[in-house]
Automatic annotation (TrEMBL):
Chain ranges of the RecX first three-helical domain: 70-107
RecX third three-helical domain mapped to chain residues: 163-208
Protein name: Regulatory protein RecX
Keywords: Cytoplasm
Main location: cytoplasm
Function: Modulates RecA activity.
InterPro entries reported for this sequence: RecX_HTH_1st, RecX_HTH_2nd, RecX_HTH_3rd, Regulatory_RecX, WH-like_DNA-bd_sf
Length: 212
């Protein structure tokens, strides 16, 4: 509803969605708007509250923020997200750019969003799994929206010695499955496999020199 600058009094508040805690506000028999419980509490709205046009616009703006925040929190309940990744999901939900920015800033202030920590944990989990090389990890994080400097900092723990060790272990497992007898054929097959896993060519050459 578009309100004039006249004062309007909330005559009735009804719960319309118990699960989402959404309430309908009325002026007489006229529906004014639907608001979340968070918005009602934030503005201290109750039956008999008088609302001006300016105040109403503030309420609507806050409700848009709360809608975006609740959607973002639902995404974060499933797993951590990068700021850019979460922003893209909110854009797909048709939230305005300024609302998204306000939501993301709020989440960062509350430490629900921390790109540096996310990037470090992503690399840490990948190293524990020992299935992926640094090039592939960098590509995955860039696609998710991680900043290059954060990726490079996190990858410092994936040093040359560890890369060689992981690459060699993967090569040994793959080699055991190959039925090719010619050394050159095995070399090509393993080289392509390890490159696909995201290892540097120098690391691949060193590993294959040690195995073949």
């Amino acid at each position: 509803m578009i309100m004039s600058e006249n004062i309007i009094t909330i005559s009735r508040i009804e719960l319309v969605s118990p699960r989402r805690k959404i309430y309908a506000l009325y002026n007489g028999e006229e529906l004014l708007c639907e608001l979340s419980e968070n918005t009602l509490v934030h503005f201290g709205l109750y039956r008999g509250t008088a609302v001006s046009g300016e105040r109403y616009r503030e309420i609507v703006a806050y409700q848009e923020f709360d809608d975006g925040l609740q959607q973002a929190l639902r995404y974060l309940q499933n797993r951590p997200h990068l700021r850019g990744e979460l922003a893209e999901k909110l854009r797909h939900k048709q939230f305005r750019r300024d609302v998204i920015e306000k939501v993301l800033t709020h989440l960062q202030q509350k430490n629900y969003l921390n790109d540096a920590e996310y990037t470090r944990m992503f690399i840490k989990e990948a190293l524990r799994a020992e299935k992926t090389g640094p090039l592939r990890l960098r590509q995955k994080l860039l696609q998710k929206g991680a900043a290059t400097e954060l990726i490079e900092e996190a990858l410092t723990r994936y040093d040359d010695e560890l890369q060689f060790s992981v690459c060699k272990r993967l090569a040994e497992k793959k080699l055991a499955t190959l039925s090719l007898s010619a050394k050159n054929d095995r070399y090509k097959k393993l080289s392509a496999f390890l490159a696909q896993k995201g290892f540097y060519h120098e690391t691949i050459r060193a590993v294959l020199a040690a195995l073949l």
